[in-house]
Amino acid sequence: ARLVAVGDIMMHSPQIPAAYDAATGTYSFDAYFTHVIPYLEGDWVVANLETPLAGEELGGYSGYPMFNAPAELADALRNAGFNIVTTANNHTMDRREQGVLNTLANVKARGLIPVGTYDSPEAAEQIAVVEKNEIAMAFLAYTYGTNGIPIPEDKPYLVNLIDEAKIKADIARARELADVVTVSLHFGNEYHRRPSEEQKRLSAE
């Protein structure tokens, strides 16, 4: 079985109107993936969804620095072959709690499996396990932060933050459920091509 993983999927301000069809009043982001589809052939195909899909009603669609893309982006991901998206990253809270909930609903409605954000404490306790070719793979995801936007104190389950003790405990639980455990960590220094010493240390742990 084959695991394919790519980095950040996000739409900057010029890309969103470019995907809009005024004649039909709809968005399509399929064209952005046309030339990479051959590289996305796998059993588990994972992307980091680094933009809320929160709906236009939550502050409109926008790119940097506070992202929010149309839910049709999830259609394009599914059409390109993705089946899993990590949703724990520094832009997770760009549209606050409701943005997290709307994103989860929009992703799930398209048949994609989100990892790293949750709509309830019970959901946060569940580890995503996807079986392909009789191989069970567990997926975990964590972020270093949310750009200073606070996670509600009474709802820490919304976003998985990097916490070494929690990560180790989650990995231990995942190993009981799956043959392979895949961990996505959203961390590091912007635009640096090499891992930092802290990244190396945490990954080695």
Question: What's the helix and strand layout?
Answer:
Elements: E1 3-9, H1 15-18, E2 20-21, E3 26-27, E4 44-49, H2 72-80, E5 84-86, H3 96-109, E6 113-115, H4 121-124, E7 128-132, E8 135-143, H5 164-177, E9 180-186, H6 197-204
Parallel strand pairs: 1-4, 4-5, 5-6, 8-9
Antiparallel strand pairs: 2-3, 7-8
How do you describe this structure in short?
The protein is an alpha/beta fold. Helix content is 26%, strand content 21%.
Stretches where pLDDT falls below 50 for ≥5 residues?
Answer: none
Helix run count: 6
Structural class: alpha/beta
Distance between the termini: 27 Å
How do the strands line up in the largest sheet? 1-4-5-6
Helix coverage percent of residues? Answer: 25-40%
Q: Tell how many strands the DSSP assignment holds.
A: 9
Please provide the ordered H/E string of secondary-structure elements: EHEEEHEHEHEEHEH
Fraction in beta strands:
15-25%
> Shape from CA axes?
globular
- Rounded to an integer in angstroms, the radius of gyration calculated over CA atoms is 17 Å
Major sheet: 4 strands, parallel
Give the overall pLDDT as a whole number: 97
